[in-house]
Design brief:
single chain, 136 residues, alpha+beta, Nucleoside Triphosphate Pyrophosphohydrolase, 7-stranded mixed sheet, 18% helix
Amino acid sequence: MERKPPVRVCAAVIRDEGKILMCSRPPGSHLEGFWEFPGGKVHPGESDAECLVREIREELSAEIMVLDLIGRTTYSYPEKDVEILFYRSFLLHGAQKIRATEKQEVLWVKLGSLPEMELVPGDVGFAGWLASGAEN
């Protein structure tokens, strides 16, 4: 059976005071309970930045500014391939309250603790690279 092209997914790497914003996968979803960088699938005709602004607004009720692409990976799950693009981003209003809208957990994590989390498999390599200080 021929595999479809990878699903394009964008992830926001939101940093504040040395911590990274992470979200758990919502109940009833694929990989429920695993941690990931917030984001989602790019819709047709949508830029990566538009995707991230929309996803963070929908999932976390927060407004972000998307900066530069800092990582990219392709991961093959049994049912599909995903291309994940990681963008450095920041909250537009630093003190804004983040409200998870899909019953997921939200956590600010110290950079060095990322590899210790139970991450979705597609995020593991990037998280290790980020925690190693390679991006700084």
